[in-house]
Amino acid sequence: MRSRYSAHVVASQEPCAIDYLMNTWATEQRQHIDRAAVEDWAVNSQWLGLTVVSHTPKGDNASVEFAVSYRTADGSPHIHRELSQFRRDQGRWYFVEGEEPKGQVPGRNSPCPCGSGKKYKRCCGA
Question: 105 and 111 in contact (C-beta within 8 Å)?
């Protein structure tokens, strides 16, 4: 999970990072991935931080819930939350799929997950 986030962060300076992202998708998923969209999101975002909320290993499978904060090209802040499924194959982990976690929005007075130090209601929740 962290290596995939790091690939997003360095994609604008390291074009091979997009190859890494594509190669860490589960083989059966790769044909459904829009490489240009992945590259556009990675290169045209300012990545601000990753928070791993939970990690549940189950043998050669694992679930990782995380939140990433980023700014788009127009400067607007965003938080992407996801519950991702990973599978280990021959000692290497592959991203299988992800979905938005249900009911996991920070409270208005909670610290903003983007790491700004502000309350959620005054930052990304505004």
Answer: no
